[in-house]
Amino acid sequence: MATKKKVITKDDIVSKYMEEVLEKGQKPKSVYHFAKENDFTEAEFYTFFGTLEGLEKEIFRLFFENTVNLLHKNGEYQGYDMKNKMLSFYFTFFEILTANRSYVLQSLKIDRNPIKNLVQLTTLRNSFKDYVAEILTDDYRLEQERFQKFQEKAIQESSWLQLMMTIKFWMEDESPAFEKTDIFIEKSVNASFELMNVAPMNHLIDFGKFLFKEKVHSR
Predict the structure, then answer these.
(1) Distance (Å, rounded) from C-alpha 123 to C-alpha 120?
(2) Of all residues in the chain, what percent are helix, strand and coil, respectively (each to 5)?
(3) DSSP string for residues in 101-155
């Protein structure tokens, strides 16, 4: 009786891809070579991914997804304010990156062109920006509605740049248990939330409106 072939899953393909990158120190040449060397068909690959590049992006998105899933399993998380939600995200996300550190370092340095390496993070970027928008509270939102959309986009983009800076710091961190990265996270997140304090900005906008009215009435 012929042995029934194991059905390949999305997680199987992700695991095999990460293993191949680590063991060979380079990306597979093509979907054909990747599938053949790992005993599944191209058709099975295309059930889950359109390209190898799409698979690379999905790996980092899965790191993000696993982070958020873990956060939501913590009963206290929903009661946190925005800053503590962000800190929780950072510490959990970098625990997951650390568990996969060899792959992350290899994949983000594998191409001589750093821009090509960063393309892998585009899906992570979109997911993270959505997360920032989701946890943004009125404490950090301008009172004037016409400025809110611009402000939210600015917060999303600056938060993404901060995450990228933290990833770079973590990649270069040689301290035991990456304790310097923990300190970097705490100080940088605290500093960013100090800068996000909207009270002075609201006062400036009100002052600007007052000056404008005074100028109009004085004519």
Answers:
(1) 7
(2) 80, 0, 20
(3) HHHHHHHTTSSSSHHHHHGGGHHHHHHHHHHHHHH--GGGS-SSHHHHHHHHHHH
Domain ranges of the chain: 1-50, 53-217
User: CA neighbours within 13 Å on the CB side: how many for 184?
Assistant: 19
Asked if 208 and 144 touch (Cβ cutoff 8 Å), the reply is no
Question: Within a 10 A sphere around the Cβ of 74, how many other Cβ atoms?
Answer: 12
CA separation for the pair 167, 7 (Å, rounded) = 35
Per the structure block, which two tokens stand in for 92? 């959990």
Q: How far apart are CA 93 and CA 104, in angstroms?
A: 13
pLDDT tens column, 24-42: 988 999 999 999 999 999 9
- Residues of the chain below pLDDT 70: 1-4, 138-148, 197-219
Question: What gap in Å lies between CA 50 and CA 148, rounded to an integer?
Answer: 37
Residue type present at position 122: T
Helix (H) or strand (E) holding 78: none
Report the phi/psi class of residue 142: left, alpha or beta, with left for phi > 0 and alpha for psi in -120 to 50. beta
One-letter amino acid at 45 equals F
Report the amino acid identity of residue 70: L
Find where tokens 């939102």 sit: 141
Nearest Cα neighbor of 42 from 5, 6, 11, 8 is 8
